[in-house]
């Protein structure tokens, strides 16, 4: 049946990404090979990292012109050529922007269906795990320390601050625009949130961090990183998670106080990606689930409807129009799965 | 007696330092207060960090106009108002560019006089300890790894590479000019040394590091740091010791691939200063002394004669004209001390 919509990469962006870089086409439903399953896409994760994949080799091969755009997704198995999975099973896996896709069964993670499926791609998915592993595993916070996180209203940042508070730290966000900042303070319950679009934001950050900054969870790089570095305490830690300010440009700029301030303040800047901490995934998800159930951590998902809207969902995310984890819903949940 | 020559800071440099920023004057010999000793200066340590002290507050207060220029020095006690020290004792202490100075006895480190006094300010002084603590304590090398160090012919770099080799690593230097590079290879016995003034230096560095770079001991920052970062292995470590390329300028530039590459390669960049590892100083000095005695580590000191030549010695150091640890000899060794 040629009812399988796919979104392919028509052209690679040299600077700012636009929806013109993508094209919708229709293809046959894919047929699984030995050891593969074919799945119907239910939800797709939209991430700033998708843009980095289009810029060159990262922790994965670069996206090429003509590729169906890759993504992380929740799928319902419709056909299986592996004994470990059967039609009707729900899985999370690396997939593509399409109604139907095949994935190797060995790289598909079974999803229980006892949690809302959106949570599998947000608080209990890569976003929540990234926040937990980066803050706990790399930043190593002590109760009473001050944790600052940029892109605080984003999929990872929103959990970094909530986890920091759960661990007894002061949580201060950085976000764009007064409404987002209000949302971070009021809904995510951070201690403070600073609007980086405000001219006086560096002073506002200092006011929000009266004891200085012990941990900076950096999602953006660039001039925000530079400003925060000046306010770090001796032996502070910078958790390098991403550089969203640098993905969508052809002229990246480094913080001018590196490495000078790193020496003077004896800072540790350390990068990680979520897969480095796979051995601790179960611990992270158990802790996060418990916090969600007892109300310590709140979940807000930003769901865009329709496969055809995925390009705009990504372009908008890079411009910061999301609030919480951005997802694209491609098909309704199967019956029996709890809704969010 | 007004036979005490001092060199004072006449003007603070806004960009490049010159000898015109200093002035020689003559003053009375200083009289020690309670708990102090007066000493005759024998040797002074000339360091790139001296320039950073003139640019603002670092790990010490900024140098001000009118100050006698601070330095680390070896002195012979000539008068004591503290029971722990007596005339004739040799000490290493924070002092000033002068024939005579007073220092608090509690902050003067007794020097045995069984080693050449130059070694107290080089291999067994701050330079050697900085190399040892930075490489061993921050970089944590494993035998078989590749260690790259910039300013490889400088006071710290020359020991970093020699210690790396003593620990079973491949040692690759970065230095300016073919003669310096030859010296690093032939006299310091690094495995390789690359001339950063050569247009093809990035490719030459890659050729010198066939297994990539595991540890980069960074003394310079700037564009050299940027180039090296591209060649780091996954989970590499950048030991941030200094940023000599950034001290002597009014427009510092940060590496454009920070924090992007830190994330992708999961690098750890960590700053330190030698005082952070004081608890391990004895271990460092014992190990270095043993290596010097058995010929594993070679010592080359670059001694400039005459207090009056200290300004030029510092200006020249910042331009890279030294080979090994730069010192200024102010007075001859007392009798009985072994010569280098």
Helical proportion of chain A, percent range: 25-40%
The number of distinct helices of chain A, counting runs of at least 4 residues, comes to 11
Beta-sheet strand percentage of chain A? 25-35%
Mean of all residue-level pLDDT scores of chain A:
94
Q: Give the total of beta strands of chain A.
A: 15
Count of folded domains of chain A: 2
Q: Biggest interface and which pair forms it?
A: A-B, 35 and 35 residues
Q: What is the makeup of the main sheet of chain A?
A: 7 strands, mixed
Low-confidence stretches of chain A: none
Assign the CATH superfamily of the largest domain in chain A.
Answer: NAD(P)-binding Rossmann-like Domain
What's the CATH class of the largest domain in chain A, please?
Answer: Alpha Beta
Q: Summarize the helix and strand pattern of chain A as letters.
A: EEEHEEEEHHEHEHEHEHEHHEHEHE
């Amino acid at each position: 049946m040629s009812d399988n919509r796919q979104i392919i990469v028509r052209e690679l962006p040299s600077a700012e990404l636009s929806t013109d870089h993508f094209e919708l086409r229709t293809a046959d439903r894919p047929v699984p090979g030995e050891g593969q399953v074919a799945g119907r896409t239910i939800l797709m994760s939209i991430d700033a990292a998708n843009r980095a994949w289009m810029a060159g080799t990262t922790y994965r091969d670069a996206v090429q012109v003509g590729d169906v755009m890759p993504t992380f997704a929740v799928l319902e198995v419709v056909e299986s050529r592996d004994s470990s999975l059967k039609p009707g099973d729900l899985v999370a896996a690396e997939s593509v922007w399409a109604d139907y896709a095949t994935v190797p069964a060995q790289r598909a993670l079974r999803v229980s269906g006892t949690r809302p499926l959106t949570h599998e791609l947000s608080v209990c998915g890569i976003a929540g795990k990234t926040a937990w592993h980066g803050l706990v595993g790399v930043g190593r916070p002590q109760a009473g320390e001050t944790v600052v996180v940029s892109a605080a209203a984003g999929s990872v940042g929103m959990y970094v601050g909530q986890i920091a508070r759960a661990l007894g730290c002061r949580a201060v966000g950085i976000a764009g625009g007064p409404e987002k900042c209000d949302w971070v303070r009021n809904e995510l319950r951070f201690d403070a949130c600073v609007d980086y679009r405000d001219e006086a934001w560096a002073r506002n950050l200092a006011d929000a961090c009266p004891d200085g900054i012990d941990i900076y969870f950096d999602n953006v790089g660039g001039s925000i990183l530079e400003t925060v570095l000046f306010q770090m305490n001796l032996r502070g830690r910078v958790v390098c998670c991403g550089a969203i300010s640098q993905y969508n440009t052809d002229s990246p700029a480094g913080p001018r106080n590196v490495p000078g301030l790193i020496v003077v303040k004896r800072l540790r800047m350390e990068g990680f990606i979520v897969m480095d901490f796979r051995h601790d995934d179960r611990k992270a998800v158990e802790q996060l689930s418990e916090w969600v159930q007892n109300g310590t951590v709140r979940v807000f998902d930003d769901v865009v409807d329709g496969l055809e809207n995925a390009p705009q969902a990504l372009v908008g995310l890079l411009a910061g129009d999301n609030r919480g984890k951005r997802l694209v819903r491609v098909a309704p949940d199967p019956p029996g799965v709890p809704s969010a």
